[in-house]
């Protein structure tokens, strides 16, 4: 399942997507994120799942434009979203950005 975390406003759409089927809850994305956006815990979309899964912290969901801004600008300069620290840290390709 694709879990989308974020928001849409007048400036655009700002979402991080976690592929919960690909995510194995390893947690490598958490320390890779300089904005402290990610956490690993229970899957709020699938309460029957036993394994942990990555998610965007509740208090960051309405701030992604700002919390991820520095990384996004760096990825845009390099031309590849895979240059983003959280995306690069995820060996299973479970993290994506929509803006």
Plain-language structure description:
This protein has 99 residues and is an alpha+beta fold. It has a three-stranded antiparallel β-sheet with strand order 1-2-5, with no helix packed on it. A two-stranded antiparallel sheet has the order 3-4. The protein is globular and about 35 Å long. It has one domain (2-97): Alpha-Beta Plaits (2-Layer Sandwich). It is 23% helix and 27% strand. A hairpin with a 2-residue loop joins strand 1 and strand 2. It has helices at 29-32, 64-67, 69-78, 85-89; strands spanning 2-9, 12-19, 38-41, 53-56, 95-97. The model has no long low-confidence stretch (mean pLDDT 89).
Topology record:
Layout: E1 2-9, E2 12-19, H1 29-32, E3 38-41, E4 53-56, H2 64-67, H3 69-78, H4 85-89, E5 95-97
Antiparallel strand pairs: 1-2, 2-5, 3-4
Short description:
With 99 residues, this protein is an alpha+beta fold. It is built from 4 helices and 5 strands, in the order ββαββαααβ.
- How helix-rich are the residues, as a percent range? 10-25%
Query: Helix/strand-derived class?
Result: alpha+beta
DSSP summary, beta strand count: 5
Tally of structural domains: 1
Write the CATH architecture name. 2-Layer Sandwich
């Amino acid at each position: 399942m694709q879990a989308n975390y974020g928001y849409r406003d007048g400036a655009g759409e700002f979402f991080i997507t976690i592929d919960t089927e690909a995510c194995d809850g390893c947690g490598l994305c958490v320390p890779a994120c300089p904005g402290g956006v990610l956490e690993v815990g229970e899957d709020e979309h699938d309460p029957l799942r036993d394994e942990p899964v990555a998610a965007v912290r509740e208090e960051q969901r309405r701030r992604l434009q700002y919390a991820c801004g520095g990384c996004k600008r760096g990825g845009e300069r390099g031309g590849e979203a895979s240059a983003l620290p959280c995306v690069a840290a995820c060996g299973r390709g479970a993290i994506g950005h929509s803006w």
